[in-house]
């Protein structure tokens, strides 16, 4: 099948490369000429494990190409994915100007034949009908083209996007046309049958077919629920801190209940990234437009904002005055296996520490540069980070950080304080290395008291 993916951001690029891998002829289109030149050279402008290799393989096989020519893409695509960004506006509403521009462009170049236009971007409820009208407004009077609009929301996790594409838990298709839905099922047939799955013996992937509005709502509701689940376990972690319980054991105990499930019950310093903050805010904005209160979503966001600064509170409880202290952050990205800093908790922590007069250093395996207005000094190794620090805060649970020689890092520090913001380290190992360990709702392994001075101090 001939496919055009308009927008080569995170969703568009992964979608295009994966569809090419399962046998479709894919043109990925973007209006950024420099970015397209990079893509044409076989290099991904974003960090996603395995993406560059998948691109290069499908390009060599002749099933994936990149262009800035919208007319060529529209002419090529039997199925056209709109996968441009919908960033949040200051009021929480999604900015749909790029979706509008693409829809109008499709209408201007749609000359003949039947096409399916797919909203892959996360768009407000009602956007399917809106996109259809925008295309109709731009169609030439001489055009004999026909088309239908389908909503096909994505549920990709950064760092696992290729796996998620080939091993989805469900595929959601929203639309009013049987022909369009049938064509989309044909497009996804190799994935539905698990032909390219890591576990091909599993039953076929469920395909959920709905009306347009329901499909658009599913995306927002799914992310809002997951965000609320994280905020819930973080609140429970704060209770555990006060009463001496271990939130990791609590999460295991409640997660075994099939009505709850174990996923997204990892307590820490809060959620961030490109999806949860934007989608929760957008859903709240949609609800307000229709006179619906969102008390639970309001609390979800408020809890998350408080949680981000909990690491700073713990530092104050331990080090007391932070002015003049040096704090090292292990990790910057909002989650491991990505270079994404959008709405990362680390950014709030940095600003608050700087406001309190602390010097902030950071090390991240991927991030090597930051805007000059962010008051942090980047280092190239964890050892360089630890040198001269009064405390370390684990912000991102990169696998690399679990394998560090903390006894070695201890010799470089002024004071041995570790705030484990993701509960991913071994308290006993840290305390054996001399650290005063504090997790999130997780008791220390021993009864060590601060201050503990580094051996070299």
Q: What can you see in these coordinates?
A:
With 457 residues, the protein is α/β, with parallel strands linked by helices. Helix content is 42%, strand content 13%. Strand 4, helix 5 and strand 5 form a beta-alpha-beta unit. The longest helix is centred in the middle third of the chain and has 32 residues. It contains 19 helices and 14 strands.
- Rg of Cα set: 24 Å
Looking at the structure, what is the overall shape?
elongated
Low-confidence stretches: none
Q: Characterize the biggest β-sheet.
A: 6 strands, parallel
Fraction in beta strands: 5-15%
How many distinct helices?
A: 19
Structural class: alpha/beta
* DSSP, total strands: 14
Please state how the strands of the largest beta sheet are arranged side by side: 3-2-1-4-5-6
Cα distance spanning the termini: 66 Å
Helix content: 40-55%
Mean pLDDT equals 94
Outline of this structure?
The chain has 457 residues and is of the alpha/beta class.
Key features?
elongated, 14 strands, six-stranded parallel β-sheet, alpha/beta, 457 residues
């Amino acid at each position: 099948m001939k496919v055009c993916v308009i927008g080569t951001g995170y969703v568009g690029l992964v979608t295009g490369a994966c569809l090419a891998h399962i046998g479709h002829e894919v043109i990925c289109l973007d209006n950024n000429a420099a970015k397209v030149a990079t893509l044409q050279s076989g290099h991904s402008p974003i960090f996603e494990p395995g993406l560059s290799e998948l691109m290069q393989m499908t390009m060599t096989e002749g099933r994936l190409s990149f262009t800035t020519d919208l007319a060529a893409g529209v002419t090529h695509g039997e199925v056209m994915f709109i996968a441009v960004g919908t960033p949040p506006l200051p009021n929480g509403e999604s900015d749909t100007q790029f979706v509008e521009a693409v829809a109008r462009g499709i209408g201007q170049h749609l000359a003949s034949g039947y096409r399916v236009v797919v909203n892959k971007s996360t768009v407000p409820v009602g956007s399917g009908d809106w996109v259809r009208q925008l295309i109709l407004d731009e169609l030439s009077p001489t055009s004999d083209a026909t088309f239908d609009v389908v909503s096909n929301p994505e549920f990709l996790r950064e760092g696992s996007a290729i796996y998620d594409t080939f091993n989805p838990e469900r595929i959601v298709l929203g639309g009013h046309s049987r022909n369009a839905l049938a064509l989309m099922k044909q497009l996804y047939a190799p994935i539905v049958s698990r032909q390219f799955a890591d576990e091909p013996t599993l039953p076929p992937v469920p395909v959920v077919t709905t009306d347009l509005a329901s499909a658009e709502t599913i995306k927002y509701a799914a992310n809002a629920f997951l965000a609320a689940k994280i905020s819930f376990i973080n609140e429970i972690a704060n209770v555990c801190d006060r009463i001496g319980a271990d939130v990791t054991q609590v999460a295991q105990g409640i997660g075994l209940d099939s009505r709850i499930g174990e996923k997204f019950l990892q307590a820490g310093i809060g959620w961030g990234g490109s999806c949860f903050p934007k989608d929760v805010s957008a859903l709240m904005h949609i609800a307000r437009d229709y006179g619906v209160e969102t008390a639970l979503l309001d609390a979800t966001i408020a809890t998350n904002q408080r949680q981000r600064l909990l690491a700073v509170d713990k530092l104050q409880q331990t080090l007391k005055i932070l002015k003049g202290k040096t704090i090292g952050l292990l990790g910057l990205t909002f989650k491991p296996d990505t270079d994404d800093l959008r709405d990362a908790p680390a950014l709030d922590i940095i600003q608050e520490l700087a406001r309190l007069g602390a010097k902030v250093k950071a090390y991240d395996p991927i991030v090597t540069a930051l805007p000059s207005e962010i008051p942090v000094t980047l280092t190239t190794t964890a050892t360089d980070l630890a040198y001269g620090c009064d405390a370390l805060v684990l912000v991102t649970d990169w696998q690399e950080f679990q394998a560090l020689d903390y006894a070695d890092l201890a010799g470089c520090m002024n004071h041995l304080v570790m705030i484990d913001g993701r509960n991913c380290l071994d308290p006993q190992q840290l305390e054996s290395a001399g650290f005063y360990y504090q997790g999130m709702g997780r008791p220390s392994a021993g009864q060590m008291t601060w201050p503990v001075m580094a051996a070299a101090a």
